[in-house]
Amino acid sequence: MDYDQVVKTDEAEPSGSGRDTPPHVISTAEMTISGQPDLIKVSTSYVERQNLTKRMQMRRFTRLTNAFSKKLENLKAADALHFAHYNFVRTHSSLRVTLAMAAGITKSLWTIRDLINSN
Questions:
Q1: Which ranges in the chain belong to alpha helices (H)?
Q2: What are the phi and psi torsion angles at 113 (to 5°)?
């Protein structure tokens, strides 16, 4: 597997006036962890988009929520179920297919029943 890591270093204090103003990135460092990743495609945007999607679609990952998991096992199961649905069942509007179909992992649209019985 090709795996590269981008480490960003932020300012110690946010430069904006408010508490919610993000700090400025002052440096970045790329490290190849394994394989030979295409450095042109290495970006934090992919994982940041994935994290935003998770927070927006799953209440247990939002701040100040009462929809939390009491057990880590339940949290892991909910996370796995969410991303399996997101990749195999949900048709994405811009692609008009699922992400798994676009990646060539499957050729057909899955139903919830297919997802649950996929063991």
A1: 45-57, 72-84, 99-102, 112-116
A2: -60, -45
